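hey can u run this one w/ 1,3-benzothiazol-2-amine bound, need the structure tokens asap thx
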Amino acid sequence: MRIDVVSIFPEYLAPLELSLIGKARQDGILQLNVHDLRSFTTDKHRTVDDTPYGGGAGMVMKPEPWAQALEAVSQGGASKPVLIVPSPAGERFTQALAYELAEEQQLVFACGRYEGIDERVIDWAREHFTVRPVSLGDYVLNGGEVAVLAMVEAIGRLLPGVVGNPESLIEESHSDGLLEYPVYTKPSSWREHEVPAVLLSGNHGKIAQWRRHEQFRRTVERRPDLMDTFDAGQLSRADRNALAELGYDVVGGRLRKRPEGGPQG
Ligand code: ABV
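ok here u go:
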């Protein structure tokens, strides 16, 4: 995969030289280039922003340096590259979107600063790219760079050969719509806190069932919104019993929360 990142703070992307993503670059699995937007300006002051038409606070990124940068990075390739524009006004970045983007030949990330990029860049870019404004979550950063660090890591680790043991990709939080179960290592007793006895039992059926129950328990507690969209169509009797204890019944392949104080609650 080829990834190009355009930013006025290319040094912000330095962590992409480290760890698994850095290794993927060294191994040639990932070809990642970071570009300084200012190198595509032509004026003496290397200006990238200007005041907003219509008034208001802050500055807007000028269109021409962006057009020059995006033209420079989108040379060649069989398919249109995907242009990802981090923005609190974008669609949510999810594990499902990470899997989808991991299939692309080329991704280009456009890191905006100030109040945003002149919207005409987004319109013009649709001729050359598949444009995806993407949000990491409902909070505001100073620019897209930190969002790009997160997205490149989430996408890069899905490329074949980046994560050493592919099995560790399978059982992760969010892959099956539930949060991950808690994990423990030695010693079995630590500062008067004990590892749950079932994990020391050697009974792998019971361990799998306990972990599944913990996934449900955690998801109910921390992310009840995920229970509403969970695919409950193919659950085992043990799963349905665990969910009943947590106050959820299966109705038409979905989970339905039993009214507080109702039967089984
Ligand atoms: C991009 N906040 S993504 C540019 N959550 C500026 C702010 C910002 C992003 C996000």
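The longest helix spans residues 204-222. anyway lmk if its weird
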